[in-house]
């Protein structure tokens, strides 16, 4: 399916992780159908898929430090599933899952990627997976409580803020003053991508005809591959590029690089 780039570009700036949901506000049936349809249709890579489960995720989310991972009262959740035979499964799941998260945001719903702190075996009892597949992450979906509770606000240490690093810390390659508009928009969108414990492990090399995403940091993985985070940033790059009239293709690469967005056509509007 084609990426609904205007809708998702707006969602990139609107999305924020929310962990506590409004028990009194169920998701409307037509919204659930729209989300379920997207989970089935948005499959840009054969080795990554998403599955909507319309039951509360009770028992699935573990919750560890402060409110980190402590998900409350979500009426539904989505499992992000990867076929582990693909060497690029992490970034494929990150890219695919973020499409679903952005559409959920555009539908007015709230979400929170959870990759480290959930029980895959509990999810697997609700979602069919085959022997090559693993559930790499989940998100609760629903309408968040109107006001963030103190618990939600007071996140200790882990993933505490929504703050992002400045672009200049993340890029190499072409000088910033020479960037075309689409590069500026794409990297600003990539910068806003969510990542586990807000670690922002990505770097970007700007070239004449594309952008290469690479792993910028070393250090603990917290049981979540940094390539999954990078896959999320890759979708943000493509969405913003399309919004700027630039179409491209991803070539997935071996570590420490993750993928290269190669411009095919810079006049698609
Ligand atoms: C791959 C991934 C895994 C995450 N895992 C968790 C988690 O286990 N528990 C949690 O509360 N938040 C989790 N988060 C949410 C991040 O902490 C959050 O995205 C980050 O702090 C940035 O905040 P924002 O999403 O509000 O912009 C995860 C995010 C990503 C992308």
Describe the structure.
This protein has 269 residues and is α+β, with helices and mostly antiparallel strands. It folds into 2 domains: 5-153, 3-Layer(aba) Sandwich (NADH Oxidase); 167-265, NADH Oxidase. Helices cover 29% and strands 21% of the residues. The protein contains 7 helices and 9 strands. The strands form 2 sheets. It has a 5-stranded mixed beta sheet with strand order 5-6-7-9-8, with helices on one face. Strand 8 and strand 9 (257-265) form a beta hairpin. The model has no long low-confidence stretch (mean pLDDT 92). It binds flavin mononucleotide. Flavin mononucleotide is lined by residues 16-17, 19, 68-69, 112-117, 137, 159, 162, 194-198, 224, 228-229, 232. Residues 16-17, 19, 68-69, 112-117, 137, 159, 162, 194-198, 224, 228-229, 232 line the site of flavin mononucleotide.
Quickly describe the structure.
The chain has 269 residues and is of the alpha+beta class. The protein has helices spanning 5-14, 29-41, 89-106, 120-124, 150-153, 181-191, 226-243, and strands at 48-53, 76-83, 110-111, 133-142, 171-173, 202-207, 210-215, 247-252, 257-265.
Q: What summary fits the major beta sheet?
A: 5 strands, mixed
| First-to-last CA distance | 18 Å
- What is the N-to-C order of secondary-structure elements (H for helix, E for strand)? HHEEHEHEHEHEEHEE
Helical element count?
7
Q: What coarse outline follows from CA principal-axis ratios?
A: globular
How many β-strand runs? 9
How confident is the prediction overall: mean pLDDT?
Answer: 92
- Our count of domains comes out at 2
Instruction: Supply Rg.
Output: 18 Å
Ligand roster: flavin mononucleotide
Percent strand equals 15-25%
CATH superfamily of the largest domain: NADH Oxidase
Question: Strand sequence of the main sheet, in spatial order?
Answer: 5-6-7-9-8
Q: How much helical structure, as a percent, in the residues?
A: 25-40%
CATH topology of the largest domain: NADH Oxidase
State the secondary-structure class. Answer: alpha+beta
Which runs of at least 5 residues are low in confidence (pLDDT < 50)?
none
Task: Please name the CATH architecture of the largest domain.
Answer: 3-Layer(aba) Sandwich
Q: Which CATH class of the largest domain?
A: Alpha Beta
